[in-house]
Every structure is written in C-alpha cells, then in structure tokens.
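INTERNAL AUDIT FORM
Audit reference: QA-55
Scope: verify that the stored structure record matches its stored sequence.
Auditor: D.O.
Record contents follow.
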Amino acid sequence: MNKKKSGKQAVSSKLTKTKVVLHSKELARHVPSTRPFSRDRLLTMLECCRMVYVKPDTGSQGIGVIRVEKKEGGFRYQSGSRKHEFSTFQAMFTSIQRRIGSRRYLIQKGIHVLRYSGRPFDFRIMIQKNPSRKWECTGTAARVAHPRKIVSNGSQGGTIFQARTLMNPIVGQEKTARLLRHMNQLARLTAAQFSRVYPAMNELGLDIAVDRSLKPWILEVNTRPDPCPFTKLDNPASIRKIVRYARAYGRSYCLTCSKAKKAPGR
C-alpha cells in the first residue's frame, strides 16, 4: 500500500478505505463483509446473510444506498422511501442494475442494528488531530433514521440524539459507558491505520452501528467528515472543539444544517 499519499486529500473510494481498516486484525472483526457489486456476489451474499446494503463506492450523505432482502417467496429492495417487491432474483437484479447503471457499487452485509421507536440508529464518531498533533475523539452523536428511510444520515432527514439518551434505556448507564469507550478505541485504532497510509490525515468520521448483541460495527470511514450532526446536540462542547481543532489544521466547515433534525426536548 502506498504510504506516500497525502492525507490532505479525501479518500473517495469506500472499498479503498475498507481495505485500509482490514489491515488491522482487531478492526477487521468489526467490519461487515464488503465486496464489489456483481450479480453473483449479490446472490451469494443474500443466500448467506438475507439482508445486504448496496451502496455507491464513492459518494456521501446516504445518497444512492439500497437495502436488499431475501424474503419468504421472493426478494425486496428499498431505495429512499420506496420499496420494490420481486418474485425472482433475476427480476430484482435487473431492476437494481438499471437503477445504478455503470457506476461502481459495493455490497455490504446488513447488520440488524438497535432501534429507537422502531427506527434504526447508528453513531457518528469524530476523531481529529488536536493542536498537539495527537489523535483525539472529539464527539459522538447518535443518528436515528427518518421513519420511512433506511439510512440515518441527517441529510436524509435523520434525527440527532446524544448517544447516552438512546443507549441508557436499552442497556443501562454502565454498559453504555463501556460501549462508548469501545467505540472510541475503535476510532483511535482506525485513525492509527489511516495515519500509516495517509500520514497527513487530520480528521475522520466513523459511522458505527451496534447490533442486538451490542457488538459495534464500522460501516464506513469518512475522510472529509461533515460535523453537521454535532450542531444538533444540546451540549455545544463537541462542536466547539471540532471547529477549534479543524481551524488549527486549516479546515473550516459550513455549519448550516437544515435537513438534520434535533431530538425533541426531554
């Protein structure tokens, strides 16, 4: 792997970023199986997993992500808020292929994540080089998917919560604290991996989902993360630190976040 690449440039390919993470045995245990999109791979992974996500190799904000499922008596996929049912795999594959065209896509094993009010949620963890040039986790936000959508991104109408607000009622304060520490450790290990390949990298945003057995899974690593979720938290400490650290390494953000929703007051 070329270690001379500049971390000042965002890494656009999700598959490339996944391969960086997989070089760590510890991290590899927390990465869902991810493969380049093809007909045979889609069929094989559906036979094995029954639910997968088909996503663009490049892109952001959850745009173009498709959830594909093998159901009793047929197949189904959802893109945006629309669901499509098929009696055969070939009919479904033809429809998906028509939708994605010649763009490069990936297939990722689906994770049955924790839910809030029936809606899936995951976490965005921000990790940055601090002014002392050491990696530091600067924020964690929970993102609850829009009621009719499959992705949790704020740009797709997701609602932003404090992580503990969602996790404490599910597993209690002690397990929540332990889980959040574990996710921060995964973020630090990921940052160390990326630093080896892209030494000038200054920031990462990890999308981490937690399954029903409380195992965290790294769904995606963003090399030019949007701090928008942190503007929706009641406590402004995270976004202030994120902006301050970014300024130190020469990045500024647009903090106008109109599509993400703030969690209702409690």
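Auditor finding: record pair retrieved intact. Helices lie at 14-22, 25-28, 39-49, 89-100, 163-171, 173-197, 237-248.
Action required: none
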